[in-house]
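Researcher: Next entry in the queue.
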Amino acid sequence: MAQIHTTQLETQRNSSAHPDQIEGSVHETASTAIKAAALSFGADVVGIANIERWEAYAPAGYRPTDLLPGARSVVVVGARGPTAGAWRAADPRLMEVLGLDFANDRAIAALTGFIEQEYEHYAIQAPGLSVAGHQPPFSYMLAAVLSGLGTRSFAANIVLNPRFGLLYYSACITTLELPADPMLEQDVCPHPMCVQTYKHIGKTPCMAACPADEGGCLDGTIDKDGHIESVYYDRERCASRAMNFGPFVFQKAMADIVTEDDSETRKAKIHSDFFTRVCSGVSFYKESVAQCFECMRVCPIGRQERKLK
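Model: Structure for this entry, 309 residues:
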């Protein structure tokens, strides 16, 4: 246990405070220290949720206690990923190939070690990568919502933070009991500007950037009070366009090649520029994996954070 926390704990033990007050104060101190550590490790935001919140939203097998027996809390971090300069770059591939989406993973990896070393409680990084199709064992987006860091949006159900907009999330599951942060009471999306745009053209900026009725991925409606009424997101269509290179696409391309009956066509597919780039993407990993950010590029939420000189 860190010295500062030990000292405070001894002070509280010698005080006349009620035991429940002492325990609550210790948990608050731990929460403050853990959040400060997460920010120092590179996170832009950090929130905490108790594991009971998953009962109403996640089926059995996808809850924190299914991954770490005895889990009591989930600490969630968010990082901005692409820099403000990357958003303005003339080549959109820079958004992905520079590896700008790893700050959240670095922060949470360091945080799990911090919790185990400083507080002597178990901690693991929640597994967010898909293991079957697009289904991960643990949803970072749900964790971000339950920890009060954001709410879902029209744009591919992306969880938007009220200050930064698009963030990349990671989570730490721990047996350390920590006070939970409140969930956001007000939806981040739609932005007031988007509500006005919807009134004029029947679409928000993100819907207009990728309209489902013109072969795109997004659609939805806003009610009379300016809140999300319905959301349509074609995930498979989005993935086929935004993930043209990487493990998923390699698997799909290989399946297409091995099931091709015509030998000349099969040979042409093997030697195609597309398959060469797919193999390169798997081999070197940072070959552009996600190539489409257009719904987020037009989103007004968080734009003020990207205005620099």
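Model: Strands lie at 45-50, 73-79, 123-125, 160-161, 165-166, 168-174, 218-222, 228-233.
Researcher: Noted, moving on.
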